[in-house]
Amino acid sequence: MPLDILVGAQWGDEGKGRITDLLAEEAQVVARYSGGDNAGHTVTVGAQLYKLHLLPSGILQPRVVSVLGNGMVINPARLLAEMEQLKQSGVDVSPARIKISHAAHLITPAHVALDKAEEAARAEGKIGTTGRGIGPAYTDKIARHGLRAELLLNPEQLGDAVQEHIRQVNRVLQNIYAAPPLDANAIAAEFAAHAQRLMPYITDTSLYLHQQLAAGARVIAEGAQGTLLDIDHGTYPFVTSSSPSAGGVFNGLGVGPKWVGRILGVTKAFQTRVGEGPFPTEAFGAEAERLRGTGANPWDEFGTTTGRPRRCGWLDLVLLRYAIRVNGLTELALTKLDVLSGLHTLRLCVAYTANGETHTELPLGPADLSPFTAVYEELPGWSEDVSGARELSDLPEAARHYIRRLEALTGVPVSMVSVGPERGQIIFV
Ligand code: IMP
Fold first, then answer.
1. Which residue, judged by its Cα, is nearest atom 1 of ligand 1?
2. Which tens digits make up the pLDDT trace of 151-162?
3. CA–CA gap between residue 101 and residue 158 (Å, rounded)
4. From CA 253, how far away is CA 28, in angstroms rounded?
């Protein structure tokens, strides 16, 4: 079947961008179905490092058409800036290559201001959002007064809708958060200018995808964030406001499940998390710093979108098995195996204990992980640099053993292992 789904199996930042970029070599279309510019996908092509926030990672494959699906929330200013940056690097960003759903929702400066004001007001209970206006834009969508991309095709309606929206948000900003109001006229003028540039890109992407799939094109649905940040299936309330799990693909693109082929979950060889919320396998001190890296390399564990240091720890197989279940994963792509080189002993979390009981499954999902203590299986590490490995047989026995244990404990095959950020640093199993 021609629709392959690629999702994050952890808390985001699994390296989905570089895996999508690879799979896109064989695809005609790559479509994002959820989230907005809270995502940060890093792809390295030769000496060039690309940081993508809104455009699917397939944009770097010249023959691929990129779709921004109806499940997304799009900040037009940020999208135009990203397109401009890619254009400077010689990437074709014409309407023939990028299609934006008419039913995607728009993020405005008012959503960004609200996101920041809400976070500040949460104080100790803050979620640690990326501050990109994601939650407020999805709130408007669900409350049925959001601004959809199709408004960009109708300048008069757009002006009125933006003005009304800013006036509404200003009431909240001023009366609830004692924050300064935004200039409705200026923002409406900005949106009128964005509309002029984005108009040719707006289309019914559900229809486009259907036509492509029916004609036998290979389409990749590219997830943003990760399963544990899913509004329904994640570590609520420390989640994003969309559905990054496989189920989100169908609503977020307007395609049916009948087309689905592979459902690939991307997981790092260890665990990371940005923002607040429980993290049972979190490491601290030297161990955490070792996994995080110093920040000297762009692929070290510092947020692509916010620059925040990521919390790091050991691979949690209770949570990975959960992600396999809620997404129906058929295979795993294991990333950043090279980072584990040089660690004497590796740890895999195989179960949790709470109140004297052992759990291999979460009794009530991952919302409250705070009662659980991780139970580890220890495995021998390896000292060799694995970044040059291109076949499983190039890996040290301890690394192959780590992968085999992961497969045995999850029941899902590992089909790809990445050993560095470059396109070629990959092992197809
Ligand atoms: P929001 O999506 O900006 O509302 O943030 C909600 C939570 O999701 C916060 O903990 C963020 O750190 C996290 N988050 C959002 N996008 C990403 C991502 O692309 N990678 C990792 N964490 C993310």
1. 129
2. 999 999 999 999
3. 16
4. 16
Last-in-domain residue among 154, 178, 198: 198
Mean pLDDT in residue range 245-257: 98
Q: 67 and 253 in contact (C-beta within 8 Å)?
A: yes
Residues in the chain, how many?
A: 429
Question: Are residue 291 and residue 383 in the same domain, yes or no?
Answer: yes
Question: Which CATH number fits the domain that encloses residue 353?
Answer: 3.90.170.10
Cα–Cα distance, 18 to 49 (Å, whole number): 11
Ligand 1 centroid distance, CA of 82 (Å): 19
HEC string of 313-354 equals: ECEEHHHHHHHHHHHCCCEEEEECHHHHCCCCEEEEEEEEEE
Task: Judge if 190 and 95 occupy the same domain.
Answer: no
- Side chain identity at 211, as an amino acid letter? Q
Residues 280-301: tens digit of each pLDDT: 999 999 989 999 988 888 788 9
Q: Hey, which of 229, 238, 299 would you mutate to test ligand 1's pocket, going by the most ligand atoms within 8 Å of its Cβ?
A: 229
Q: Is 423 exposed, middle or buried (CB count within 10 Å of its CB: 0-12, 13-18, 19+)?
A: middle
CA-closest candidate to residue 319, choices 373, 365, 378, 283: 365
Task: Report CA(128)–ligand 1 centroid distance (Å).
Answer: 8
Q: What is the rounded average pLDDT for all residues in the chain? A: 95
Residue 3 has pLDDT above 80, yes or no: yes
pLDDT band at 377 (very low <50, low <70, confident <90, very high): very high
d(CA 219, CA 26): 9
Which two structure tokens, joined as six digits, stand for 362? 């979460």
Asked whether 71 and 254 are in contact (CB, 8 A), the reply is: no
Distance CA 232, CA 15 (A): 22
pLDDT confidence of residue 366:
95
77 shares its domain with 134: no
Residue 1 confidence (pLDDT): 63
Ligand 1, residues at Cβ distance < 6 Å = 11-13, 38-40, 127-130, 132, 134-135, 224-225, 229, 238, 240-241, 274-275
pLDDT tens-digit profile of 317-371? Answer: 999 999 999 999 999 999 999 999 999 999 999 999 999 999 999 999 999 999 9
Helix (H, G, I), strand (E, B) or coil at 92: coil
Residue numbers of the domain that contains 118: 105-198
Residue 193 CB neighbour total at 10 angstroms: 12
Whole-structure pTM value: 0.96
